[in-house]
Specification:
The structure is a single chain. The longest helix is centred in the N-terminal third of the chain and has 10 residues. The protein contains three helices and four strands. The chain has one domain: 2,3-Dihydroxybiphenyl 1,2-Dioxygenase, domain 1 (Roll), CATH 3.10.180.10. It is α+β, with helices and mostly antiparallel strands. The protein is about 20% helix and about 20% strand. It has a four-stranded mixed sheet with strand order 1-4-3-2, covered by helices on one side. Pfam families: Glyoxalase. It comes from Aegilops tauschii subsp. strangulata (Goatgrass). This is VOC domain-containing protein.
């Protein structure tokens, strides 16, 4: 799968000068459970969230990375979370060191499949 021939021949437009990814946002069935996971397993800290937002959620931060947890409303049309990891689904991946320590910390939580 590629671009049409005419698209391949055009000069690319200058790209925006990105500095880094600011944050990702996840719709959650339980913001509290998600806070617990990101805090306990990955070491994220809660940060101030604008009071003007009229929906439930939490903002977390660690080492220049932000995660916005958004409370899924009742009757939401968002698909339910699958119990198995789907490599084709939307996801985020963190590179970590110390493989054994990672497995010992994460595996008991049963929130993630290693």
């Amino acid at each position: 799968m590629g671009l049409p021939a005419q698209e391949q021949q055009r000069e690319p437009e200058p790209a925006l000068p990105l500095v880094r990814l600011n944050h990702v946002a996840f719709s959650c069935t339980s913001v509290e459970d998600s806070i617990d996971f990101y805090r306990r397993v990955l070491g994220f800290q809660l940060i101030q969230r604008p009071a003007s937002l009229d929906f439930g959620g939490a903002w977390m931060h660690r080492d220049g990375m932000g995660i916005h947890l958004l409370q899924r409303s009742a009757g939401s049309d968002a698909p339910p979370r699958s119990p198995a990891i789907n490599p084709k689904g939307n996801h985020i991946s963190f590179q970590v060191s110390a493989d054994q320590a990672r497995r010992e910390l994460v595996a008991p939580s049963s929130l993630i499949n290693l």
